[in-house]
Amino acid sequence: MKFITVLGARPQFIKAAPVSRELRKEHEELIIHTGQHYDANMSDIFFEELHIPKPDFHLGVGSGSHGKQTGDMLAQIEEILLAEKPDYLLVYGDTNSTLAGALAAAKLHIPVVHIEAGLRSFNKKMPEEINRIMTDHVSEYLFCPTDTAIENLTNENITHNVINVGDVMYDAVVYNKKLANEGSEILTKHGLESKQYHLITIHRAENTDDEQKINNILEAFNKIDELKVWPIHPRTKHKLESYGLKLDEIPNLKVIEPVGYLDMLTLESNAKKIITDSGGVQKEAYFMEVPCVTVREQTEWVETLEGEANILVGTDVNKIIEAVNKEVSPSYKLVFGDGNASRKIVEAIRK
């Protein structure tokens, strides 16, 4: 069978790596990279580290408004699909790349395979929520990471070809964690000691596009005494500069350039706590049993909230400080599968 996979952002590169390995044992796969993440540290390095074959098509869409970005992708993906005539199109998660790929294929009657289907934050102000809902409703095969995702789809009357296979991101962590621990020198490079720092990742538009929210987040960081390490997202850096906000005035904050996947796994697994607004990082924290503080009002990964493994704080200054300083002893359950989601996906499509 012939598959085309659409990728555009860091989390999708990570999810695609184990699936691509399984697919290519028996089938043909072509990769479209939309260029949604185009910075070398946010894109190229992931293909290299995860041994993902180089994209067959690079759209170079770059940044822009949601409508323009999605529209540009849609037009270009449609041309490729018409020329290549794949049997299936694979999309991951909830980005504009996901939606553009799904719409292009669905309108050409090419079956859409949505990996990481069924997630809901129930907040339609998040562009990711719109992308998830629309992609699920045009997909032919919906591979879910959890039972909660199955329930969400059932509540929307989507029950055909819906399967809980577990989380492909868990597959990636299981496969790469040992490589990261053996090969990464990121702690030595930045003079970090295990469990002696908090790791920060902030990039969501709902936080970075709101000057008051990002101000609150920085005010909280200013009042957290312990060492904080922040591999800063290019978009976040640009937004902070546009607001005239300076990070060098925050005590015990070490700002570093974006890092590759293996270095990120090392930083995450050795952190005392992780402070994030990223869906993927929330999961990685859970997989590696590192307490997480999520700077959002909702999460699509509700399973991580059990036993204070992940604490939602929004952008309330005091809640952020309290959650970071709080001593927790969370318990972790195997709710994201057994690390074989990728194999189950390929077997289900074959059947």
UniProtKB/TrEMBL annotation:
<dbReference type="Pfam" id="PF02350">
    <property type="entry name" value="Epimerase_2"/>
</dbReference>
<comment type="similarity">
    <text>Belongs to the UDP-N-acetylglucosamine 2-epimerase family.</text>
</comment>
<dbReference type="InterPro" id="IPR003331">
    <property type="entry name" value="UDP_GlcNAc_Epimerase_2_dom"/>
</dbReference>
<dbReference type="InterPro" id="IPR029767">
    <property type="entry name" value="WecB-like"/>
</dbReference>
<protein>
    <submittedName>
        <fullName>UDP-N-acetylglucosamine 2-epimerase (Non-hydrolyzing)</fullName>
        <ecNumber>5.1.3.14</ecNumber>
    </submittedName>
</protein>
<feature type="domain" description="UDP-N-acetylglucosamine 2-epimerase">
    <location>
        <begin position="24"/>
        <end position="350"/>
    </location>
</feature>
<keyword id="KW-0413">Isomerase</keyword>
<dbReference type="GO" id="GO:0008761">
    <property type="term" value="F:UDP-N-acetylglucosamine 2-epimerase activity"/>
</dbReference>
